[in-house]
Amino acid sequence: MTEVEHAGRVGVFGATSLVGACLLPTLVAAGWPVTAWTRQSPGPDADGVQWRSLGDAAAVVSSASGQHIASWICVAPIWVLPAYFKMLEAHGARRVVALSSTSRFTKDDSSDLQEQAIARRLVEAEEQLQDWAQQRGIEWVILRPTLIYGLGRDKNVAEIARVIRRFGIFPLFGKATGLRQPVHAADVAQACSAALRSPTAANRTYNIAGGETLGYREMVSRIFSALGRTPRLVTVPLWLFAAMVMLLRRLPRYRQWTTAMAQRMNRDLVFDHAEAMRDLSFRPRPFAPSAADVDEKRR
Fold first, then answer.
1. Across the chain, what does the average pLDDT equal?
2. Backbone angles phi, psi at 13, to 5 degrees
């Protein structure tokens, strides 16, 4: 696949996700007609986007005759993709870009068993995609973003903002100097679009990190600023943090919180994205969340 072949249609899995919300207008602006697939009731076609229901995968395969879609992007969890391999084949897929996560590296030794399971699912799904694509002569590109944020819909920055909004403070374990590279969903979407076009990206994996490296404490302070508040950071011992997490997990919005999150506050989670800059012209923004990025109403 060459860079000039991008006039064809692109199929998108996970079109209603956070990254998907940024990806669709990015693709349309780049000249791609889009077919967006969703498990939800599809909305009306508009702005260069056709909406289609995934429904039953077998039914989708049987209806694919004559519908050629060579380029695909999966911004849904990568582990859902193998269920649709036959669908991709039926549509004549030639390149598949899939979003994984650097969590496959940072959570493999987590003290939380659920986080370990997530890391294993990411690894296994990446391997499944590569094996399937190589056997069929289909090009694949895997992007592994760091901590994604944006539009008030993420489970990272937006979650911290909700705690601040609710309690007026944010608890930290220890010095909380672990380094982070938050990456905006719109920048991830740009990388996905570029990965469709780049001839050098075929059959490669890329780390997708934010444009700035900063400590966890500083990251939280900037979230306070985005909310128009003076930072109020409270350092607590691990046992107290664990007790607070147990209480927070009783609330639906904080059920994914774990003590492993506290332990990672002092761990550097930094990845080199020089290859993405070289092959995908990836130029992520520094971490300066806007009011929209922490606006709870936008979730």
1. 89
2. -95, 145
Q: What is the 3-state secondary structure (H, E, C) of the chain?
A: CCHHHCCCCEEEECCCCHHHHHHHHHHHHCCCCEEEEECCCCCCCECCEEEEECCCHHHHHHCCCCCCCCEEEECCCHHHHHHHHHHHHHCCCCEEEEECCCHHHHCCCCCCHHHHHHHHHHHHHHHHHHHHHHHHCCEEEEEEECCEECCCCCCCHHHHHHHHHHHCCEEEECCCCCEECCEEHHHHHHHHHHHHHCHHHCCEEEEECCCCCEEHHHHHHHHHHHCCCCCCEEEECHHHHHHHHHHHCCCHHHCCCCHHHHHHCCCCCCCCCHHHHHHHCCCCCCCCCCCHHHCHHHC
Which has the minimum average pLDDT: 71-80, 107-116, 164-173, 199-208? Answer: 107-116
Vertex 212, ends 206 and 217: CA angle to 5°? 120
Q: So what's the pLDDT on residue 2? A: 45
Q: What is the mean pLDDT of residues 40-65?
A: 70
Average confidence (pLDDT) over 144-171: 94
d(CA 100, CA 97): 10
DSSP-derived pairing of the beta strands 204-208 and 170-173: unpaired
CA angle 288, 293, 297 (to 5 degrees): 155
Cα–Cα distance for residue pair 264/279, rounded to 1 Å: 31
Residues 96 and 13: their CA atoms lie apart, in Å, by 11
pLDDT in tens, 233-254: 999 887 887 787 777 777 776 7
The pTM of this model reads 0.89
